[in-house]
Design brief:
This protein has one domain. It contains 19 helices and no strands. The protein is globular and about 65 Å long. The two termini are 36 Å apart.
Length: 428
C-alpha cells in the first residue's frame, strides 16, 4: 500500500505544481510499479497503456462531438447570444444569477464547461461591471453554474460525468431522477445564497468591481452582432430532448446539435472549418489528459497493494453507497478530474458494486447518480478545469479559491450525503 500512497501523493503534488498529467501519470505509474515489485516495462506497455486505450476507445467520440458542438456554439456567437439574452431578461444588476443561469443552460445543453468559460466570460465581466460586484466571485459563480448541478446531478444532462456510469451500471442518462433533482437543488440553491451572502459581505468592505488587466481585458458585447437567441437555443434543446425523450445515443444527439448550429448560422459558413478543427484539437487534449489519469488508475488497481485498498473501502461500516461515493470522490480529488477519477474508480471497483447491488437488492440507478454527484464534489486547487478558469479570468487561488471550495466541494458533498441517505430509504 505504501507504493500506492506515494504514487497518489506524487500525482496530486506534481499536478498542483502545474506539471502536465500527460507525462506525470506514466512517470508516477512507473514509480508505483518499481516500489510494488512489478515489471517496469510490462507495467507501462501493457497495464498502463491498456487502461489508457480502453478509456479513449470508449469515450473519445463523445469528447470529439461535444467539443465540436461547443466550439461551433462559441465561434458563431450562439452561446453568447443565449447568455446575453438571459442576462438582459434577468437584469444586469442581478449579475450572479444571470451568469449562473447562463452557464447552467449552456452546460445542460451539452456545451463543454471549457467552452462555456471562454464564451460567457466577456458577458460575465459586463454584468459584474454593471452591478458593481467584485470580480473575485466570477470563478465561483462559473464553478457553481457549470461544474456542479448541470454536470453531475440533473437527470438527462449530456455531460460526460453522466455518461460514464451507464456502461458500468446498465442505466441511462435519466437514472435516479429524484436523487438527481434533490442533489441539483441543494447545490444550485445553496450555492446561490452563499454567493449572494459573499456579495453583500464584499460590498460592506467596499470591495467592488475592478477592471481586468492585460490579457484578461474583454471587449464589450455588441448585441447587434450576435445571432438570433431563439435559434441559438434550439440546438441546446435538441441535444437534451433527442437524448432523453427519443432515447437516441449521445453521439447522434450531439451530431444533431452540430448540424442545427451550422444550419442556423449558415452565413458564417466560412468559419465552420476553423471551429471544427479547433474543437477536434481540443477534444484530443481532453481525451488524452483524462486517459492518462485512467491509465494510472489501471496500473494502481493491478498492483499487489490494491487488494488491501479494496478491503479498506469495502470494510467501511456503512452502506455500499457511502463506500462507492468515497472511492469516486477520492480518485477525482487526487487526479484533479471528475471524469478521470470516476473512470479510475469504476475501472477498479465498478463490477464489484454492480454485483453488490444485484445481490443486496440495491438500486443500480442510485449507484449511477451517487457516482456522478460524488465525482463532482472534488474540486481541489490542482483541478484542471479550475486552473483554466483562473487563467481566463486573471484571478488566483488566493483571490477566489475559498468561494470555489464552498460552492464546488463543500455544498456538493452535502448533496452527495443527502442523496445517499435518500437512496438508503429506497428513494430514487
Amino acid at each position: 500500500m505504501i507504493s500506492i500512497i506515494i504514487g497518489l501523493i506524487l500525482l496530486m503534488l506534481l499536478a498542483y505544481l502545474g506539471w502536465s498529467i500527460i507525462w506525470i501519470a506514466p512517470l508516477v505509474s512507473g514509480i508505483v510499479a518499481l516500489l510494488s515489485g512489478m515489471n517496469l516495462l510490462e507495467s507501462y506497455t501493457d497495464t498502463y497503456m491498456q487502461g489508457f486505450v480502453d478509456f479513449a476507445k470508449d469515450y473519445f467520440p463523445i469528447f470529439l462531438f461535444g467539443a465540436i458542438f461547443g466550439k461551433l456554439m462559441e465561434d458563431t456567437g450562439a452561446a453568447q447570444a443565449v447568455a446575453y439574452k438571459i442576462s438582459s431578461l434577468i437584469g444586469e444588476k442581478r449579475a450572479i444569477l444571470g451568469m449562473l443561469i447562463s452557464a447552467a443552460i449552456l452546460t445542460y445543453g451539452g456545451v463543454s464547461l471549457f467552452v462555456v468559460i471562454f464564451a460567457v466570460y466577456p458577458i460575465a465581466v459586463a454584468m459584474f461591471r454593471s452591478a458593481n460586484v467584485s470580480r473575485i466571485l466570477i470563478p465561483s459563480t462559473f464553478v457553481l453554474g457549470a461544474f456542479t448541478f448541470t454536470m453531475t446531478a440533473f437527470p438527462g444532462t449530456p455531460q460526460i460525468q453522466n455518461i460514464i456510469p451507464i456502461n458500468t451500471f446498465e442505466t441511462d442518462t435519466m437514472a435516479a431522477p429524484i436523487l438527481g433533482i434533490v442533489a441539483g437543488l441543494i447545490m444550485a440553491v445553496g450555492g446561490f445564497f452563499y454567493l449572494k451572502f459573499r456579495e453583500k459581505q464584499l460590498n460592506s468592505k467596499d470591495e467592488t468591481f475592478t477592471e481586468p488587466e492585460g490579457d484578461n481585458q474583454v471587449k464589450e458585447v455588441d448585441e447587434n452582432e450576435l445571432p438570433n437567441w431563439i435559434l441559438s437555443t434550439i440546438p441546446l434543446l435538441a441535444v437534451v430532448i433527442t437524448l432523453n425523450v427519443f432515447d437516441i445515443s449521445i453521439l447522434a444527439a450531439l451530431l444533431i446539435g452540430v448540424l442545427l448550429v451550422m444550419i442556423f448560422n449558415f452565413r458564417d459558413y466560412k468559419d465552420f472549418i476553423g471551429a471544427i478543427n479547433k474543437g477536434a484539437s481540443g477534444s484530443v487534449m481532453a481525451t488524452i489528459n483524462t486517459s492518462a489519469a485512467v491509465g494510472f488508475g489501471a496500473l494502481v488497481t493491478a498492483s499487489p497493494g490494491f487488494e488491501t485498498v479494496k478491503e479498506l473501502i469495502f470494510s467501511i461500516p456503512l452502506s455500499p453507497y457511502f463506500s462507492e461515493a468515497f472511492a469516486v470522490q477520492l480518485m477525482a480529488m487526487i487526479t484533479g478530474s471528475a471524469s478521470g477519477g470516476m473512470g479510475i474508480a469504476l475501472e477498479a471497483l465498478g463490477e464489484q458494486y454492480y454485483n453488490i447491488a444485484v445481490d443486496q437488492g440495491l438500486s443500480l440507478e442510485a449507484f449511477h447518480r451517487i457516482t456522478s454527484v460524488a465525482s463532482g464534489a472534488s474540486i481541489l486547487p490542482h483541478n484542471g478545469a479550475l486552473l483554466t478558469l483562473f487563467t481566463v479570468t486573471g484571478l488566483t487561488h488566493k483571490d477566489s479559491y475559498k468561494d470555489v471550495f464552498v460552492v464546488g466541494l463543500l455544498i456538493p458533498m452535502v448533496a452527495t450525503i443527502t442523496i445517499i441517505l435518500l437512496a438508503m430509504m429506497g428513494i430514487n
